[in-house]
């Protein structure tokens, strides 16, 4: 079981604007900020999560060298749809419209968006096939 994940972004303020808007649709919000001073010069970091527990981190401090893929759980298909719309409205680029992905399994419903750095962010609901 993964407790949390993090990756660097090129522009922390730009990424913050994107993730504040895109993740809100999944009930995920900013719960912790770590400054450059707090890390002893190793970058600033933003922790997103629920109920005061950050589990999705972005940070500055070094250039991103390769895109990352992260899939976030959604409670239903409507939330996947809302994530996709919110992420596009926040400046993300479509990387797969909401829909069933039966190659993964019959009830796999997901949407994919590229963040401002090209990271592939997915919202997925594992439910019953339509």
UniProtKB/TrEMBL annotation:
Source organism: Paracoccus methylovorus
Protein name: VOC family protein
Annotated VOC domain residues: 1-126
Gene3D superfamilies xref list: 2,3-Dihydroxybiphenyl 1,2-Dioxygenase, domain 1
